[in-house]
From TrEMBL:
KW Oxidoreductase (keyword) present: yes
One Gene Ontology MF term: electron transfer activity
Keywords, comma-separated and alphabetical: Flavoprotein, Oxidoreductase
FAD-dependent oxidoreductase 2 FAD-binding domain segment(s): 23-229
One Pfam family this sequence matches: FAD_binding_2
Protein name, per record: FAD-binding protein
GO CC annotation: plasma membrane
Lineage: Bacteria, Bacillati, Cyanobacteriota, Cyanophyceae, Nostocales
GO biological process annotation, one example: anaerobic respiration
Length: 269
């Protein structure tokens, strides 16, 4: 693959090739892409989302679910951030932590309003830390982004980014696996949300996660950051197909000599 100059890249528009324009092109329709598409579309801009599989059932969340870093009480934010900072060797940036907490708070309430079936806490309040019904979550996201006006191209992997004469990313192109032919989208902004690179884990939903977005971004000159922390797989029972980490909440881990490893439940605080 290589990045093409937009000016010299004219796809024919015959057969089942399609040639589209958008304000924002989102590549990847997992939670990151779906939320990006939703937030752009509600600003009344034209948004196209392409997914390699079927947006709503493709990727690591749709087949499993996620636990969420949600801190309900503002007084507990400081403790929560300090705990994460320590876990991360004090390499995290507070401004990003705060942004994540803010967005999570807003998005979870939105999901609740849309009808996501959060489990209940003992006092009957929704338990916002759990999005473990990944299929339900992503089905709902697909419904909402369509409602917001996003055009979805399923089974349409992006193969390369388009760049203009100045080197700025100006869209992408790819293929239509079911309809046949190719697609090209020229866009003022492109969001790459193609997930991780976990296909070798063989975990459910990870077959599509072949690191395409990282490659496309690198080809367009992007600088990567924090990649040295992105190669860890979770523990899993030998017979399981999912390496999700929910069992950390209940399990006790020990060293070979039986000494308990402290702190493994901190990730859920
Ligand atoms: C093995 C594993 C275990 C995990 N365990 C947990 C856990 O216990 N708790 C927790 O909170 N989180 C967990 N996660 C993390 C969570 O699943 C991910 O953070 C989340 O799914 C990431 O969302 P995303 O939208 O970035 O990517 P994904 O949900 O993976 O979605 C990526 C999307 O991009 C599409 N795509 C890929 N390439 C292309 C392309 N070239 N063109 C178009 N579309 C493309 C895919 O089809 C997919 O739909 C785990 C992840 C993995 C891989």
């Amino acid at each position: 693959m290589s990045a093409n100059l937009l000016a010299s890249d004219q796809l024919s528009n015959n057969g089942s090739d399609i040639n589209l324009e958008a304000d924002v092109l989102v590549i990847g329709g997992g939670p990151a892409g779906a939320w990006a598409a939703y937030n752009a579309a509600v600003q009344a801009v034209r948004v196209i989302l392409v997914d390699k599989g079927y947006c709503g059932s493709s990727g690591a969340t749709a087949s499993g679910g996620t636990s969420v870093w949600y801190v309900a009480n503002p007084d507990q934010r400081e403790t929560a951030m300090a705990s994460r900072e320590a876990l991360g060797g004090f390499l995290a940036e507070r401004s990003w932590m705060e942004r994540v907490l803010d967005r999570t708070h807003a998005n979870l309430y939105e999901l609740g309003n849309w009808g996501y079936p959060f489990p209940s806490e003992q006092q009957g309040q929704p338990y916002y830390r759990s999005l473990q019904q990944g299929a339900e979550y992503m089905r709902l996201m697909r419904k909402q982004i369509k409602k917001a006006g996003v055009q979805i191209l399923d089974h349409s992997p992006a193969l390369e980014l388009l760049v203009d004469k100045e080197g700025a990313v100006a869209g992408a192109k790819g293929i239509r696996r079911q309809a046949g032919g190719r697609w090209i989208v020229r866009a003022k902004a492109v969001v790459i949300a193609t997930g991780g690179c976990a296909f070798l884990s063989k975990a459910l939903g990870c077959n599509v996660l072949t690191g395409d977005g990282y490659l496309m971004a690198a080809e367009a000159g992007a600088q990567m950051s924090g990649m040295e922390f992105s190669n860890a797989y979770a523990l899993t029972p030998a017979f399981a197909s999912v390496t999700k980490g929910a069992f950390y909440r209940w399990a006790t881990f020990t060293y070979e000599d039986g000494t308990v490893i402290e702190g493994n439940t901190d990730v859920f605080r």
